[in-house]
């Protein structure tokens, strides 16, 4: 059964998780499947609200206790840095936006996609200060625009400029991680900022930042769960437990937004109302990767290759679990 070609309904998610395990485990020895890892090291960002909730509630630890596998949480400021951690072996799994895996794959990182959170186009946007004279994306020509290089908003910026009749080369990108970008934005060192939730919700609520455009009608803004390829192949039962817990907690979050926001807010250092806004704009409906989702990701990869943002073209299919033999053979 090929993981990338499956198409699931929501009620089939549990069965899909089993399919994921089978795909990841194919070709592994019985001994490898039975082996127990020293731990599950999860790369996360405080902005990853669902993982932050899981960490706060300890639900994954309870599931993995049965397998005798402890959980370690390793925090990163953003997706590109998290993928660097995955590439050098400091974490086993991670959750990032749609662009970081492409940059990482182009750099030779050895990972597989194990799941995705459906499209959340409202959860990322291009913003300007409330008193800025800039009224449209077209007016960004020649302006300084802050963003985290290689993050999900990198693609939003490219496509929003394209929709406005501009090229990426028409603006001056200023690459900064979220905290530094917020500081530059508020002191007027940049003209606009491309950012995702909950940083987006925070700058809207706290600084009155004005939206020029979000992802609606421009990009899908998927988010992805990734695993180091060797770990996923050796320990499919751990990946299965992670998937099941993420599905369960995602459903709980969407039906208990107020309670979830109260738990998450102090961990993100934000007001509850800011967190509620960010939670409202995300799906938290974790699903396996389908062929259609992989095709969307390939379009992003091709765009980045055309713009020379990555050093070489990449094939998203090479980072799907069923492709591991073909990759190893090259």
UniProtKB/TrEMBL annotation:
| UniProt organism field | Ideonella margarita
Q: Which InterPro entries match?
A: ABC_SsuA_sub-bd (IPR010067), Solute-binding_3/MltF_N (IPR001638)
- Its protein name is Sulfonate ABC transporter substrate-binding protein
The signal peptide stretch is 1-34
Family indicated by similarity: Belongs to the bacterial solute-binding protein SsuA/TauA family.
The reply on keyword Signal is yes
Q: Which parts of the sequence belong to the Solute-binding protein family 3/N-terminal domain?
A: 39-256
On whether Coiled coil is a keyword of this UniProt record, the answer is no
């Amino acid at each position: 059964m090929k993981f990338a070609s499956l198409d699931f309904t929501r009620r089939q998610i549990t069965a899909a998780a089993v399919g994921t395990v089978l795909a990841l485990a194919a070709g592994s020895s019985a001994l490898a499947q039975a082996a127990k890892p020293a731990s599950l090291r999860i790369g996360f960002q405080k902005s990853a609200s669902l993982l932050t909730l899981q960490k706060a509630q300890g639900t994954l630890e309870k599931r993995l206790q049965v397998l005798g596998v402890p959980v370690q949480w390793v925090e990163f400021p953003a997706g590109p840095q998290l993928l660097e951690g995955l590439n050098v072996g400091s974490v086993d799994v991670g959750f990032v936006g749609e662009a970081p895996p492409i940059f990482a794959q182009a750099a030779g990182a050895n990972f597989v996609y194990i799941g995705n959170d459906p499209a959340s186009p409202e959860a990322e946007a291009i913003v300007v200060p409330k008193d800025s004279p800039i009224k449209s994306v077209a007016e960004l020509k020649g302006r300084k625009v802050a963003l985290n290089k290689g993050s999900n908003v990198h693609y939003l910026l490219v496509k929003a400029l394209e929709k406005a009749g501009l090229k990426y080369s028409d603006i001056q990108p200023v690459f900064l991680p979220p905290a530094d970008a917020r500081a530059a934005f508020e002191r007027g060192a940049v003209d606009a900022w491309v950012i995702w939730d909950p940083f987006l919700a925070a700058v809207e609520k706290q600084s009155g930042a004005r939206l020029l455009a979000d992802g609606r009608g421009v990009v899908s803004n998927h988010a992805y769960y990734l695993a180091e390829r060797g770990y996923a192949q050796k320990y499919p039962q751990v990946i299965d437990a992670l998937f099941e817990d993420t599905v369960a907690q995602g459903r709980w979050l969407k039906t208990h937004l107020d309670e979830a926001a109260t738990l998450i807010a102090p961990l993100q250092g934000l007001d509850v109302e800011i967190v509620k806004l960010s939670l409202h704009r995300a799906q938290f409906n974790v699903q396996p990767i389908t062929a259609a989702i992989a095709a969307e990701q390939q379009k992003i990869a091709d765009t980045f290759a055309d713009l020379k943002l990555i050093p070489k073209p990449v094939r998203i299919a090479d980072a799907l679990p069923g492709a591991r033999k073909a990759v190893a053979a090259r």
